[in-house]
Design goal:
It contains eleven helices and 15 strands. By secondary structure, it is of the alpha/beta class.
Amino acid sequence: MQVLHNRISNKELKERMLAETEPRTTISFYKYFTISEPQAFRDSLYQKFTELSVFGRVYIAKEGINAQISVPSSNVDALKTLLDDTDPALRNLRLNIALEDDGKSFWVLRMKLRERVVADGIEDETFDPSKTGEYLKAAEVNQMLDDPDTVFVDMRNHYEYEVGHFENAIEIPSDTFREQLPMAVDMLKDNKDKNIVMYCTGGIRCEKASAYMLHNGFNKVYHVEGGIIEYARKAKEKGLPIRFIGKNFVFDERMGERISEEVIAHCHQCGATCDSHTNCKNDGCHLLFIQCPSCAERFEGCCSDACSEEMKLPENEQRARRAGRENGAKIFNKSRYRLNDGLNITSLQSIK
């Protein structure tokens, strides 16, 4: 029986990918549709993607599919044909092509089954995710941005909003999409008769959010077709003004792609103008935060001297220290000032 998951080390896979001479194209796509047998669907798609040398992350649930992948550029058309032939719901599927990328963001294919393709926390059985708001194309987005009766709502996490967003867009300050949905309803409760425009990175979160807002009594709900990625691509193609300010955070090795020249964020350690996210290089931390080149040198790529010193310990001692720590995602949140509790660091260390 063919192996339906990877058994090669990450290090070897990355070396193989970097040794490739053919260019790769980074693509994201999603589709909400009913998958009656997710496991069988996953196994079949895994085999087909492997044949096309697809790398990346793919999540499959009964409600649909969500994918961030790279594929050899010569196989892009074959990928489109494959998706067309996989299920009628995937025919002529919109593929979001990365704006800034060398195709080296992924080096392994990981395809996982999930309860939901986007964790939303919705337990209301009367909620219908197919009843979504109206799509807005790039030109329509720009028109709506100038409408005083329109509210733009960013349905991404706080650290994504921090480095880039549409002009005057409202931030829903949260770490997770499941927290944001009820927060958005509450924050916008006095705007039910205004135009509500929701957006996210590639469209999957804001599409479901638009359905949730309609379900909760909002009357005029829209969402940006293809999210920030498609908006920026179409605006550039058509020569339209780009009204997104800063960088679009992406969930791969790049951690962001430049949309406009403005840099609106600051280094979390010294306050210098900077919008480059990084993970603390200490394997016992991996805190996600913004770090400028000067602080990266000063702290050796770490969030603090404590992490820098721990990283220099013998590997067996580092492993022993990591063993007793919680392995949850660690993200620096300026508003909550929540940081590396496992190392007893109460604040991100700054340069005095």
